[in-house]
Amino acid sequence: MEFDGRREVQKTLALIKPEAVAKGYEDAIMERIIDEGFTIVRWDKMHLSQEKVQLFYREHEGKSFFPTLIEYITSGPLIVLVLAKHNAVQAWRDLIGPTDVEMAKISFPRSLRALYGTSKTYNACHGSSDPEAARREVKFFYPNINTDPILTNSEANQYIRENLEQYLVDGLTKLAKEKPINPVDWLAHWILDNNPNRPRIEIEE
Ligand code: AMP
Fold first, then answer.
1. CB 144 within 8 A of CB 61
2. What is the CATH number of domain 153-194?
3. Which residues does UniProt mark as catalytic (predicted)?
């Protein structure tokens, strides 16, 4: 199924690569991410092994820049981020700019690669190339994150409003009052116990 990123909130994978982290650009880049309207769903600082990076960039195996790329990405800690926004995959690619930093500086001087990169390989940031790659790359680092786009069109909103909204508000209100230790378990049980669609057997006294 093909998703329309303009109508659904997508997730994409971003990396702030080791040279940008080593130069102390991570805070400025994260601030820019927020300013541009992305939600940071998850982020972690990681120092990746050679095996992991080879697997991540396996599509480039055999290319002339592959050994340099692997050496570079394993050279120090980087930041892995899962970003969410309408049309996130393309929006993040637009924000980072072209792979070639020289081209980015000429054509997109406010892009992250123009501002923080130094060359074609040392280009500060990574972004998934398309929605399919985004799903694969998010799962590569975070197998448990749901990569399905969040529907935000009016039909989906109306369905949720009519069928679930009041009911979930009740459950969430009770949850907030009780503050259980495991809120997810508590809510799951509450939903099952209070399912308005479950037939009820009335027992007459
Ligand atoms: P991509 O999968 O297109 O994001 O490419 C992965 C990374 O490989 C890029 O972000 C660059 O760091 C590097 N790279 C891609 N193409 C080249 C190239 N022609 N020369 C040098 N490095 C490259």
1. no
2. 1.20.890
3. 126
* Mutation choice for ligand 1 from 58, 89, 102, 120, CB with most ligand atoms inside 8 A: 120
Judge whether 105 is annotated as a binding position: no
Ligand 1 mutation pick, 16, 48, 55, 60, max ligand atoms within 8 A of CB: 60
pLDDT tens digits, 140-180: 999 999 998 877 777 777 778 788 888 888 999 999 999 99
Q: CATH number for the 9-141 domain, one of 3.90.1150.10, 3.40.50.2300, 3.30.70.141, 3.40.718.10?
A: 3.30.70.141
The share of the chain scoring above pLDDT 70, in percent, equals: 93
- Nearest C-alpha to atom 11 of ligand 1 is from which residue? 121
Query: Would you say 123 is a known binding-site residue?
Result: yes
Residue span(s) of the chain under CATH 1.20.890 come to: 153-194
Ligand 1 centroid to residue 35 C-alpha, Å: 26
